[in-house]
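== Item description ==
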Amino acid sequence: MRRSLEISPQFSYRFDIADIRKFYGDLEAAMAVGDYNLVATYAPAGSELKGCALVLSGLYVSGLPILEGCATLSDFGKLCLGFGLWLSDRHSAATATLSLVERRGPYGLVAQKLMRLIETQDISVFTISVTLPIFTAESEKARRPILRYGQFLVKHVGTQLEKNAYDSEYKPTDPLDEFINRLPAEERPLFIWSMSPQAVLPKNYEKVKLPKLMWCHDTDIFLYRGYDNFRLNDINIVSTSQEHFELSRALGTSVVSNIMSDTLCMPSGAAHLPEQKDIDLLLTGSTVVSFHSEKARFTYQLSKLSDEFNIVVIDGHLPEETYLSLVKRSHFVPIANRYAGATSPRWREGLSAGAMLLYPEGTPYSEIAPGTFSYRAATMEADFRHHLRMRRDTGHMPGSPYNAAEVFPRIDAGLAFLRDAREKQVERQFKFNTFMLLLHETEAGTVSVPDAHRRLTWYVPPVDGKLWTPQNVKPRMLAIGDALVESDFLDEKDYNNAALLYEQLNHFPGVSEAERAHCEARKQLLLEQGLSRYPDSLLLNFNAAHWAFMDAVCAGRVPGQPALSGFQSVIDRGAQLTFDPICSDLGVAYTLLHRDAVFPYYDYGQTFVKQLVRQNTPGYHPPEALADLKDIVLAAAHGYLGWGCILTAPAGNEDATRRAMEHFERSLAIYDDNLPLKRLRFECLVRAYRPNGDQTIAASIVDSYLDYAEKLPAALLTDIHLVLPSLDEKDDADVLRYLLSEWHRYERSVGFAEPEDLEAVLRKGTVIRRYEQYFPQSLRQSLKLWREGGASLRKIGQPDRAMGHPVSVLAADPVIMIRRLVELEAELAQTRTDLSAILNSRSWKLTGALRALRGVITKTFRH
């Protein structure tokens, strides 16, 4: 276990832009494989290459003037110029330019086909997977079965929507190729479009002889589960160079990057500069307590700036009005994502609301508008500090790039094309899709992946339920599962996916007891059939044990012996069990993400991507050592046995704790990067701790906490009160001071959109209050002045100032806070049952009763 008494969480990307550039060797090579973002960022200013890359990366308003200003253009330059003119609705100019492309040259056929399409009134497209815009009015329009986007007539076919085109002729259980082949020629689409990889692909998707395109996102957590599905697309479209590099190397098929590719396509507001700004840097969203642990490491680095600047991080999603008011008060907003430069509405909203943008180096945001500044992951604290100081020290000077009054008129001009109606932005996306098909010569739909077939992968059932309603999703998925026939099962992965579909339905809202019994029977039958054909499959043996174990946990039961024996068998037979990670959907990813305390779904996905890229990239040998994916699965089996020791023994049983720790240590010795298991180990030790009891437990609590916080520094916010008593007992004053100093620096920058429940506030406040003598001097002095009436509470916690009321637990003196809260005892009496249920769950969320009390609690905190 860990022995260092300090933590140093680092933020990084899986693949560095500098390494990606080095791999390509030159920009022409990157252009040839479709990484238009990278070329748009680094091509020489004013060059034809720069203009072409800008147009193809979605920044046509910047690229067109360059191409139109070139004295001469190559045929490729003319082709890109013609495409850019089509994007800007200058159709006559587009066809005139395309007519200049040499007919017998390499781009002559593409130019001729594009000219014909520009003159076509109705270009038919079938959309088989949808995402919805954020705003209600736009969302309702986007739900229509048939939509018109300029020249494009778009039909929803078999999507997750309640109503689709051809509902009377095509069902999600039907083979898509047979349906399309029955259509009259004039009704067949130019291409098939998926707005997201999250939807279950239709049956016989691989047999459809039409071009297929998909806009990809979150592929690092989807790829190992549905690798074959991505390979079946003629073109995968991504928004970042990093994702382009990963997917193109991993898949070996066509991938293109376009920073403006965004299926939400939400219009931006006009840029304006508010008069008053009191927040130096703002970051909101899933920023701290997140499935994606790198976000917590990012915000941990941001918190180091709080000694000099007003850094405000809000974890969670705020009401739109509140969020925009905070953005208007902010000087900077950063782009923070595990993909370098990944797009989200926040960067547009930030620039439009008067904030400047901090973006990862190597991404083309500076080509969009001024007021954008780069940072590097390895030096992000220093880079951020530099930009914040430059704004503070030079922002008032004429000619300074940080002078908001000067740059915002130009930002407003740069964002003009993003204020177009959503329909116009969607039309541009379809124009881009069309041009990519022509440019990459895949119009025949002959993607060459003979060894791949459509995988029945259901990625995010909880999201589907929220977006499309359980009443719509449940019968759809039941029908898909029940329609499977013997010819659908080509290997153990197909049996696993079918059984997993029913396992996920077992945990889906609105499933009746009769339906649950049906799902359980189907799951067991499919498992038995799969194991009879593939008895040495690690995937099937592991999942059979996992599903039995987690079904018991989710039902509040003790896991039975068959599940525990199953994990032990996996360990004992590990060497003889066979395992191919590609398309092996392990556990119950995402559905049980917050209930499964052992399997490292997120980090497993990261490792899969890294290994596949290395395997398919000759000469690329980064220094980082990677765990074997089979070993990660076997290590998890040890983890579940340890968890089982705790769950099957009486509370506080020392022997059970000892045996659990032995399993946990065996697991972490095999795979040490398992965040969920590190958290579970810490929680189990805390439950076993008794004041003045076993000293080895107290020492282990401290070590396990530091190990856990190194991986997820949000532990400083959520769990520090659990480790303090152990440190006190060990008389570790130095470590107490260090952790409380780290905690204070972090928590004074971070607030939560959803206030923690009352019991959690009381518990943390009463524990941390005992250690005030170890607080940082600055916090002790602030508290002292506040109690004496000489300082405002607002000077103690920065998120409290941003939100207008205290959100952080110790932004106020815990003793005074508790005294106020006790006065609410009568009003809280009716919520005791709800609180008990919350505290017994793994995630604390406000119930309806607690939400009703939020106003009362907030008023109390304000006094």
Observations:
- Residues 442-447, 791-863 have pLDDT under 50 and may be disordered.
- Residues 513-533 form the longest helix (21 residues).
